[in-house]
Design brief:
heterodimer; A: ABC transporter involved in vitamin B12 uptake, BtuC; two-stranded antiparallel sheet; 2 strands; 73% helix; globular; B: 298 residues; mainly alpha
Chain lengths: 291, 298
Amino acid sequence: MFLEQLLNGLTLGSTYALIALGYTMVYGIIQLINFAHGEIYMIGAFVGLFLVTVLGVNILVALALAMLTCMVVGMLIERVAYRPLRGKSTRLSALISAIGVSIFLQTLLALLAGTNTRSYPSIFNSQTFDLGFAEVSLLQIIILVFAALLMIGLQVMIHKTRIGKAMRASSQDLEASYLMGINVNRVISFTFAIGSALAAAGGVMVGIYYNAVWPYMGMMAGLKAFAAAVMGGIGSIPGAMIGGLTLGVLEIMGVAYLTSSYKDAIAFGMLILVLLIRPQGLLGKKITKKV
Amino acid sequence: MDAYLTQYIDPYYLRLLVLIGINIILALGLNIITGVTGQLSMGHAGFMSLGAYTSAILSMQFACPFWLALLAGAFVAALFGCLIGIPTLRLEGDYLAMVTIGFAEIIRVFFLNFEPGGKAVGLAGIPQNTNFVLVLVMVIVIVYLNSKLLNSRIGKAWYSIRENEIAAEACGVDTTRLKVMAFTVGSFLGGLGGGLYAHYMFFIRPQDFAFMKSIELLNMVVLGGMGSIPGTIIGATILTLAPELLRVVAEYRMLFYGALLVILMIFRPNGLLGDVRVYDIRKRWGRKEVQANADTNP
């Protein structure tokens, strides 16, 4: 029972982690809480749904196309709503701009797709495997494996490729990287694209797993993923992964063993507790302030 | 009182004016925390709901006089504001924002499960004690006291914390005490606004005070211009009117609202009246007079 709940928690947590990665990468480079990120996740879920139900595409193709679409959407948002503000405004006005984008996208999808909750057709049969200690469904395995692959891929990309190096440099010091000849705008665009693709993957997987896609799904998921990113230490990529998994497990455990009516409160309560003990998050760097 | 006024003003406009007034009070509270002291709070609706529920329950179930219920609501909110102010001593910027979001969400979930508050259905049949004149008087008093406060030693110390906390501390500003104080005063106004809101709307539900409400209030402060009282008043007015004016475009309303936020931020990155204070305007006008006199009498 406990191990099954743990698996459920890890499944949920891996989707939180995928969304949290986008928050933390963008934050690491331009210190912006990209509030439209939850909406990217929602758009990913919708694009996947559209491709699968209307065009009857294979789910893997749909997933890939959803990721691609969201890459474009993410870069577009950055270009239209954040770049004009960069350098000449406070971080708070960029935040409001992000909130504006978020409201815009929510309403747009509500207009295009209606506010009803939609569901994916059952793609994977509800086959379960008995691992001896716990029962696990095929879908859970697929989600866990795929999320793990994406995160490993991200780590490889960040540590082994040129653009990954540029991203790391930019997150250390944007201006210095610019002076070293890094095309900072391209790096930021790329960061948005990668983050959005991960969020889209999370959206499609959650859509299949929980069988519910609706225009306002990005709100709570985005908030919780942001909570996960902060819990792990915002700006830190391994932090977002650990934060997401921790939050997912804590939430499922809280529902299973405490009370389900306080589901959303548990996640935030745990977050506050973690921050009271470690103000910089689990893996965050301690910043020494200077005048 | 309002019945008398509706002879002259359309009830719809009167209602808008009251809502603008309530939003001004709420936004001024948030302005103290975020605009003046620079502590990003994204959970102001949490304080609002504390004030709303406390005062509504007091006046419905304990037949409390209206003013007492309002004050009690504001004090409960202030108490929680003080509590939430304490972690700010250790947390920075966005970590603090996350804690305030979390706090407001916890409050919302609490009221969703709170039996005397009617759970998810909410409370209905709250006596409608809030009226236009009361709101108008309160706004005037609060704006007056607020500008006095911001020009006092405390207010200037708050601005100094926003500008540079370490430098402020080095100059002898007790940042710890002042940050908690900003949270307390700000949430007091939040609770007061919540109480007025509850006693105007007849009924309240937990989802009235969800994350979007906090964001709406934050938008008012940032849009008007951080730390500026006239700015906050203008921001609250514009953002209360915007959804109403955008009714013309019917279901595209929120689409335009979202786009409007982006466009306004692109063209006025520091808010409409970034850092304009009543004091500064008076000073500028004063200076102009001197200038004019100097021109006429060479």
